[in-house]
Predict the structure.
Amino acid sequence: MYCHFYSSPLGRIRLLANDDGLTGLTLPTQRVDDTVQDDWQVTAEPFIECCRQLDAYFAGTLTEFTVPLAPKGTAFQQQVWKALCSVPYGETCSYKAIAEAINNPKAVRAVGAANGKNPIAIIVPCHRVIGSNGQLTGYAGGVESKAFLLKLEGALASS
């Protein structure tokens, strides 16, 4: 397992990867500390392209990430996370829309739970899911971070 810390406009982001791809992108408010596990190798090498893409995203010049992803989760969570990746940059959708996209329209609450367990924030764009009433709903990185990301993408008017 590889670990790297990336400085972003949201604060210090922790990146995790294995040999298959990125396994985690954790926002500053998502964790208690920056503890590095004994079996993690702290290095920038596997994250060079990811950091380049994050730089471009935060600069407003990248709208689609292409880094290899390797999130760990249940088959249902994987299905939801894949559907999240189909929500276009600059757009939002509801939990219901994601449930319908995975052909499980009654699983709205389960979709919300899977969305909340997304281990790769920003790149797997769970911030693009909002309440069916158009309101920003909970976000593991904080509603302020969600608003920042949606404004950056032009999906939320700047105030």
User: Anything to note?
Assistant: Residues 75-153 form a domain with the Arc Repressor Mutant, subunit A fold (CATH 1.10.10.10).
